[in-house]
Structures are given as structure tokens and as C-alpha cells.
Amino acid sequence: MSEAALDWIVRVHDDPITLRVYVDHVIEKVLGCRGEEAQSFTREAQAEGHFDVRKRTQDEAEEFAELFQSYGLRTTIVRGV
């Protein structure tokens, strides 16, 4: 698979309303990471307004975005930057 095919980013936006512990839980479920790694994504979203899940095919990006959205988090999909 070419590098260009893996050039899709899922951008998960900060959610100032939802409890941080819930956002951490969603990140753990969707990305399969644990504890501190999930918390670092949440902190990045709070500081930068979003965090990015990089290097996905378009289909994978859409699937990840839908998973985050099913938990009530706002996402967008962007072509690699």
C-alpha cells in the first residue's frame, strides 16, 4: 500500500462538556490504548482543540470517526497535512 493511501487523519475535537474520564474511556475503547496514553490524547485535545489519529486509509479513517461519533465525540476526517 502506498504512503499516499495511508494519508488520512481522524481529528477528534475537544469536548469541554463531556467529563474527561469518559473521553479517556472512549479513547481507550476505540484506539485500544490504556491509561496515560489515552490521557495524553485528552490533554492534547484540551490544549490544542483536537488530537489526530494519523496514517489511516480512507476506509479506516471513516470507521474510526464513526466509532468516536457513536460515543458522542465530534470528529472530522482530513487528508494528510
Walk me through this protein's architecture:
With 81 residues, the chain is α+β, with helices and mostly antiparallel strands. It has a single domain, classed as Ribosomal protein L7/L12, C-terminal domain/Adaptor protein ClpS (Ribosomal Protein L30, Chain: A). Helices cover 48% and strands 22% of the residues. It has helices spanning 20-31, 35-48, 58-70; strands at 8-13, 50-56, 75-79. α1 (20-31) packs across α2 (35-48). The protein starts with 7 loop residues before the first strand and ends with a strand.
Q: How would you summarize the topology of this molecule?
A:
Layout: E1 8-13, H1 20-31, H2 35-48, E2 50-56, H3 58-70, E3 75-79
Antiparallel strand pairs: 1-2, 1-3
Helix pairs in contact: 1-2
How would a crystallographer describe the biggest sheet? 3 strands, antiparallel
How many domains, as an integer?
Answer: 1
Q: Output the CATH class name.
A: Alpha Beta
* Overall pLDDT level: 91
Distance N terminus to C terminus?
19 Å
Number of helices: 3
Rg measurement, Å: 12 Å
SSE string: EHHEHE
Main sheet: which strands, in order across?
2-1-3
In a nutshell, what does this entry contain?
48% of the residues lie in helices and 22% in strands.
Task: Output the keywords.
81 residues, alpha+beta, Ribosomal Protein L30, Chain: A, 3 helices, globular
